[in-house]
Amino acid sequence: MQEVVLDLDWSVARAYLVPIMVALGLGLLGWWLLVWLTKRLRGSTQRRARIVRVISLPMAFALPLLLLIPALQATPLDGARLDQLLRGLHIGVAICVTWLAVRAVGAAEQTILRNHPMEVADNLAARRIQTQTRVLARVLMGAIILIGTSLILLTFPMVRQIGTALLASAGIIGLVAGIAAKPVFGNLIAGMQIAVT
């Protein structure tokens, strides 16, 4: 009787452990490879090496999370516990994607700044391009972080219900917010126009 109980416990544990351990093993192997690749290409200035450096670190953290999602769905877990674990993994993936997008914008900004150095005799055009690039990069980074935070908050059911209620009364709220934020948006647009022109 005791042997049957032990066999039953091992079969139940195996149904949980095998998918999770395989996913963690593959994810950690991918993480190690990407971190190693980042360290190896640290001093290189080639375009391909810079792209790999931008992508590799966020992907090193996102890969184990992405592999754990189907692994958890393959286990006998169900109901609220599985939903909470999957929500946590989705939040982690959303953070990694936001981080990757911000790094991509920062890398594009650095490339443009590097291609237009100010250490020249007539640097008026370079200063104009650098100012435009910095302003647009900051606005883009802020928008990406705002969208990423919004997507993370929408994974929570309570926040989604509040969002639905806000959308139902969006006309009044939009009017009030538009009037209240008019100076802020006016200054932002004016600053962007000054930077661009």
What does the model show?
The protein is 87% helix and 0% strand. The chain starts with a helix and ends with a helix. It is flat and about 75 Å long. It has helices at residues 2-40, 47-74, 80-115, 124-153, 157-168, 170-196. Helix 1 (2-40) runs antiparallel to helix 2 (47-74), helix 2 packs antiparallel against helix 3 and helix 3 packs antiparallel against helix 4 (124-153).
**Which radius of gyration do the C-alpha atoms yield?**
24 Å
The averaged pLDDT comes out at 76
What is the number of helical segments per DSSP (H or I, 4+ residues)? 6
What about the largest sheet? none
Global shape: flat
Cα separation of the termini? 83 Å
Low-confidence stretches: 1-8
Number of strands: 0
The helix/strand class is: mainly alpha
Helix content: over 70%
Encode the helix/strand succession as letters: HHHHHH
